[in-house]
Amino acid sequence: MFLNIPYDRAFEPLYLAYIAGLSAFRLAPRATLEIPGGERRLDRILDLIRDCRYSLHDLSRVELNLNRPATPRFNMPFELGLAVAWQKFGEPTHTWCVFESRGWRAGKSLSDLSGTDVYVHGGTPAGIFHELCNALVLAHHQPSVTQMATIYRKLPE
To answer: Residue 69: is the preceding peptide bond cis (ω within 30°)?
Structure first.
């Protein structure tokens, strides 16, 4: 499972919730953080998307960075676009899911997603667990939200 999420300190509780939740589904989360440098970052991202049957894209932190010059963060939607293109032109069995913390935002910032289910987690670990259950309803192993929360609580700080 390719995991396209922010890696900053403020997102850490949600990052760990994704790791715990996907692990409870017996899926192995993969992220660009795991690959050592040396190769161009874009090539590493493309390789990870290509190597994963599923990809999960959290767009909840697509926001304006106020440091001068004020610039929007486009990495997550860009990587989503790469996954969509891979599914469309490379591997039709690749499945991608979009997660957000607020229901209206993905439709406003990426209107091309119209007709796509966006899993709204409300910015909480419990919300992520619930939405993972909704997104992965066809997975072979179906853990409960309680089981995911138990794994989450046992993660080292």
So the answer is: yes
- Environment class of residue 32 by beta-carbon count within 10 Å: exposed (0-12), middle (13-18) or buried (19+)? middle
The pTM of this model reads: 0.91
Look up the CATH number of the domain holding residue 73.
Answer: 3.40.50
Tens digit of pLDDT for each residue in 41-72? 889 899 999 999 999 999 998 888 778 888 88
Amino acid at position 25, single letter: F
CB 130 within 8 A of CB 90: no
- Structural domain that includes position 101: 2-154
Report the number of distinct structural domains present in the chain.
Answer: 1
CA distance 5 to 36: 18
Q: How many CB atoms lie within 10 A of CB 151?
A: 18
How far lies 18's CA from each of 49, 65, 133, in Å?
17, 24, 12
CB 129 within 8 Å of CB 148: yes
